[in-house]
Amino acid sequence: MMTIVGIVTAIAAIVIATLIDGNSFGALIGPSSLVLVVVGALGVSLSGFDIPDLKALPKAIVKSFTAKLEDSDDTIDVLMRFAEIARKDGFLALEDKLKDVDDSFLVAGLQQVVDGADAEAVREILEVELDSLETRHQNLIDFVKALGGYAPTMGMIGTVIGLINMLGNLSDPSQLGAGMAVALLTTLYGVIFANLVFLPIGAKLQRLHKAEVAKKELALDGILAVQAGASPRALVERLEAHIEPESRRGHAARAGQPVVEAA
Amino acid sequence: MMTIVGIVTAIAAIVIATLIDGNSFGALIGPSSLVLVVVGALGVSLSGFDIPDLKALPKAIVKSFTAKLEDSDDTIDVLMRFAEIARKDGFLALEDKLKDVDDSFLVAGLQQVVDGADAEAVREILEVELDSLETRHQNLIDFVKALGGYAPTMGMIGTVIGLINMLGNLSDPSQLGAGMAVALLTTLYGVIFANLVFLPIGAKLQRLHKAEVAKKELALDGILAVQAGASPRALVERLEAHIEPESRRGHAARAGQPVVEAA
Amino acid sequence: MMTIVGIVTAIAAIVIATLIDGNSFGALIGPSSLVLVVVGALGVSLSGFDIPDLKALPKAIVKSFTAKLEDSDDTIDVLMRFAEIARKDGFLALEDKLKDVDDSFLVAGLQQVVDGADAEAVREILEVELDSLETRHQNLIDFVKALGGYAPTMGMIGTVIGLINMLGNLSDPSQLGAGMAVALLTTLYGVIFANLVFLPIGAKLQRLHKAEVAKKELALDGILAVQAGASPRALVERLEAHIEPESRRGHAARAGQPVVEAA
Amino acid sequence: MMTIVGIVTAIAAIVIATLIDGNSFGALIGPSSLVLVVVGALGVSLSGFDIPDLKALPKAIVKSFTAKLEDSDDTIDVLMRFAEIARKDGFLALEDKLKDVDDSFLVAGLQQVVDGADAEAVREILEVELDSLETRHQNLIDFVKALGGYAPTMGMIGTVIGLINMLGNLSDPSQLGAGMAVALLTTLYGVIFANLVFLPIGAKLQRLHKAEVAKKELALDGILAVQAGASPRALVERLEAHIEPESRRGHAARAGQPVVEAA
Amino acid sequence: MMTIVGIVTAIAAIVIATLIDGNSFGALIGPSSLVLVVVGALGVSLSGFDIPDLKALPKAIVKSFTAKLEDSDDTIDVLMRFAEIARKDGFLALEDKLKDVDDSFLVAGLQQVVDGADAEAVREILEVELDSLETRHQNLIDFVKALGGYAPTMGMIGTVIGLINMLGNLSDPSQLGAGMAVALLTTLYGVIFANLVFLPIGAKLQRLHKAEVAKKELALDGILAVQAGASPRALVERLEAHIEPESRRGHAARAGQPVVEAA
Prior knowledge:
With 263 residues, the first copy, chain A, is mostly helical. Chain A is built from 10 helices and no strands. Chain A has helices spanning 2-20, 31-47, 51-66, 73-89, 94-98, 104-114, 119-168, 176-227, 232-240, 250-255.
């Protein structure tokens, strides 16, 4: 959401400033600049990546507009409940409850615990999972950043081509201003697409990625604590160290009742 | 404090230099440039972050103006006293004194020691706490740096829009100078807001963050030493290695009396 | 493939934009700019590298155009079959099947297992292999990136030389425009060769390299699992953590039949 | 020393080149540019740091001009002698000789050895000391680099202000050249102060820091070797691996007499 | 060699392009620009380093022109022979053969093995040696890169000084072009010296450094294998993992005869 709000705000700022200065928008319409910057940047960026990257792009863009920052609060609640069950009824009792959990990373890790894998094995497989997620995400983010990097360059190429043509035809000096205005237009489009579209989307994807990794690291920590037989209270204390102090509610609040410590 | 003093000094330098050169300030007033640069940069930066980041921003800016660099001197004193008590009366005797300690990181760590957590567990939970602090701070610092990075770009966008309009209307050449002056104004605003406001605030937040992390690392080191039963003198020696040589006062001076080594 | 498609798309975007604006291509032909940018950038880049790097360049460029991203799916299948055989018939039984495997990294690692090397030794030799691959690839990528970095600089050198000559011969002002147009041409060629040729090729080589390393890391992980006597199902689970969730088919699907777990 | 020689050489190069071209220095005098660049850059840099940083700055600048690169030759000699004594007369015999050692890092480490701290504790306390030195130095270096980064920006701000005023008053075109000349002056001052003053000082501080760290790492290595009871010859061999081959004199040469190996 | 060939090629490209465009070289001669750029950049770079760095510079430049990339092929042969001898006749038998080895790193390491140092000690001393080499080389490379970084800046300083003088003396507009041409000349010299001399030399030194480190790491690996009593065949297999697949000749080929495995 914030991504659309932010981009609309920035466009509004440009529009308002242009109106205050009494500048016209007609001079800013340039289909050729649009083609050169958007198609050109997409082509060049694409040539450094491959088909799977291209396929993943639209979904990533939509995600940057709609996804919310991952919040680990629920994960702590879920893990607290699993710690309770594990201590009371053993790991096998967890299997039934796994159906109610949405988070596939959490499910995969806890399934390993149920299956009796040892702590080192659980950690390893989840860390490989995290690394692999990191590689996939970073790849997409790099793609979007490449778009943001090439857009102004394509704009500059268009401007230089325009300037060269203009300078080679100085017979009618009255056209010089108009020629330069058109030439500058691709520079403008390049800078705007880079800074109002591609780079913010890339930054947002990076932000979402960081929040997702933080959530998964908390989950990994919690899964290992459940396996180690931590008490629900100790587990909450440990996991709340991962989140900001304002969000820490403590075991009692999370359990929603006077705590009777199981251990 | 220093942040305001520094920014005011820099603005004064610009004002004085402008006066010396006999330049007028009237030509530098541009509400449209202000809107474009500040609102635009805020919008674009925001689109790469999310609501919690926006909410944390004002507090961070105030902090960059008012916060003092964290100083670890008190922490050493506190830990020295706790080491003394721990050696004389055992860890449980620490609990009473924890009420008088302000620093929540120190309290959390020492509480773990009182609760009898083993050294590895204490270290792990405090390191998670530190990592999580680092992530939160870095996120905010990146936000402020994004503002500093986008401000000149928004300024350049305004300038190019102004130039395109000016070049497309060269019928009245006498207006050319005035048009370019107005166009350049957004560039000026962009550079000034970036370099006199956003980037210094970002740098100060980074500086404050580093000092806070250094203090917390010293505290972590000291908590583990208390738990390991270090003598007050050994603890002071160890912790003073963290701070600059000029601030090292030694155990005797800190104790404020001839040392009678407890061990 | 995608590299050629991408570059052609970007060139098409430039051509179409130039046609829309009614600019001519005649003004953009400059053999001297071509010589200066391409030969110059090659010379300068070469002086920072050596003959083996130059020899490896053409093959790398062809590879960037034709190579497909490495896919680890087959590797998982192969390792699953080897895990099965190893558990049923012992490591020595693997030797026969090694002939059918294409991937030399996989063969080398499994041969070590057959030869009875211990896990640490297998890991070490394969990691050295990976490091050495990384060094060789990075070297080539740096070479291509150097080409992309020097091309615009050579273009700028040509433009400055052109400007100096033009400015020194202002006797015929009507030539000024034409002179500047020619001077700007090397800048254009420099930017185009960097951004439409060298940098995308460099980015593609980097992308291919990352995919190859990811595949080899999966193979390394799998070889060690085979040696440790992992069941085919556990091995598939472990290795599929390396790849994107959509490509995970599970042991049953890979085996192509109802699973009868060997262990 | 070299810092002053270098800066003077660079200034001389500028002066000579200006004289050869017949340019005048009168046009290069601009008190307003001086104020804007130096005071402005100081203000902005300061706002990102704090009072302790400002206090440490003058001493650091003086140090960059006068300090010599730390040389580890003496340290090896000292440690060789201490290794000899330690092997002959035990660690306690070292205490007397510590008075004659200047290097406080060496004294602190050897004092720990005399006090009977174990190897791990000695290493830890000295590494904390090194980290803390690194943080303090890097902070100062960042401050000086900030000065070097902001100076050209302040210069550009002055130039844009000058250009805006000039462009707004084109009524007297004969003044255009003079106005632009004055405007460019702050750019010149900004670039000169950054590249002839701040950045070289920052680079020199970095260089001195690296040499100091290298010396302290050698000392740390040697202190641990003394504690481990290394023979003087083994210690010299080990420590000389830290320094360039040309400076290696070997144990015999250092002892200044035919070696009679103690062990 | 390649460095000279590369630089000459780049200069030839500039000359040919200039001739094709009919530009004159006379306009490109500027002794003042040469002084300003070369002496100025040397001065500024020097002020960030120290006398030992200056002394090492000429040798490094010569090395960048004449040195060949280190090739590890011989090292593998030598280590293979030493492994054979060590297994047949023990470590002491190696001492005689050490005289025939050129590589001082190899000799130092093998001497340690002969002297009976344990594996950890051999590894440590050789790693310190490698670190210290890295520091010395990187220092020099940084010096050359500083030259490449300051040269265009000094060029820009000269250009701005020229522009200021020209703009302040617009009384004779016919001189404007010539004045700007001269002013631009220092920019040209700065860019050329940076990109055709300093940066390629720096890149070459970096390339040579990497190859030397790779060779020494292979040697370190091999020395430890000899000490561990590896068979010649195992040693060759292990060491050949360090080099590119095309250069791997295997134990049989290296021994130049049918292999009779010693173990």
